[in-house]
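Q: My labmate handed me this sequence with no annotations at all. I'd like to see what the chain might look like in three dimensions before we decide whether it's worth expressing. Could you predict it?
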Amino acid sequence: MFELPRPFVCGLQATIAAALIGLLSLSTRTPFLFPALGASTFIVIAFPHLPAARPRNVIGSHVLAAATGWLCYHGFGLDVVSATLVTGGSWQHVAAAALALGTTTCLLLLLGMHHPPAGATTLIFSLGFLPHAWQIAMVGASAVLLVLIVRVLALLGPSPARAAEPASVEARDLPVRASDR
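A: Here is what I predict for the chain of 181 residues:
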């Protein structure tokens, strides 16, 4: 039986997941496909055994990060200004982003929800790219959809965890240069 190399299986699954979530975005005119979801997709598909790929961490971290970023954005009154960080922004933009990132990091570590892409989610909200409270639930729904899509793809086709993987090169197998001795 022919097996695709692991990178191709992962790439195909990431393409399908992004396309499905992107089509949902188009059909609902809602940004279910947002930048941080790309990093989550990579982790969930390429490294499913890592704690960062656990559904609790993927879903919970994005929701917590979105809520924290949203609170900082509104807490600094950025919802009433038309400026952004790069177009007429102020110290409040920097403060909202910094506080959101620091608070999100602290909370994720305290709760044991390790998922680095949540750092991008909190910045997306705290900088006002997703400024509405309902978008917090949308981000959570996106994360749930991602986890479900990847699980279905694993059931229907080759899983990256089982797909043919190139042999790894061990440090002991590498040639030693004279200058390294």
